[in-house]
Write a structure and sequence with these properties.
With about 120 residues, the protein is mainly β. The protein contains 1 helix and 10 strands. It has one helix at about 5-10; strands at about 5, 20-25, 35-40, 45-55, 60-65, 70-75, 80-85, 90-95, 105-110, 120. The strands form 3 sheets. A 4-stranded antiparallel beta sheet has the order 2-3-8-7, with no helix packed on it. Strands 6-5-4-9 form a 4-stranded antiparallel beta sheet, with no helix packed on it. It comes from Canis lupus dingo (dingo).
């Protein structure tokens, strides 16, 4: 069964003793460029995720990691790679930017594994 965007927000909100942040916060680039987005977390969780959300569309899982040097591709990972050399960092690289990659990129971290089947708009 699917998980809606509203439920996704609830899963990753609430009282925490840590944070997840992305750098850079905003990025504008021409086509054909290599861009790396960094995701860092202070909770010490093993599980980290990279998503993209195109305008008016549902969240789409790109890559995920269950620990240092353990990364997996999702169906929509074409044109991007990830690296997880330290527990607190998960980097996403767009190898050669194209107009089709214009999107909102989001990272997340969780203590437990989150099953991803379909992320539907609310």
């Amino acid at each position: 069964c699917g998980i809606s965007v509203a439920n996704f927000c609830l899963l990753f909100s609430g009282l925490m003793d840590g944070s997840v942040s992305q750098t850079p916060r905003h990025c504008i680039s021409g086509t054909g460029k290599k861009i790396t987005l960094e995701c860092s977390q202070t909770m010490g969780y093993d599980n980290m995720y990279w998503y993209r959300q195109d305008p008016g569309k549902a969240l789409q899982l790109l890559h995920y990691s269950y620990g240092v040097n353990t990364t997996e591709k999702a169906e929509l990972s074409s044109g991007s790679t990830v690296s997880r050399l330290r527990k607190e960092l998960f980097s996403l690289t767009l190898e050669s930017t194209s107009l089709s990659q214009t999107s909102l990129y989001l990272c997340a971290s969780s203590e437990y594994t989150v099953l991803h089947r379909h992320l539907q708009p609310a």
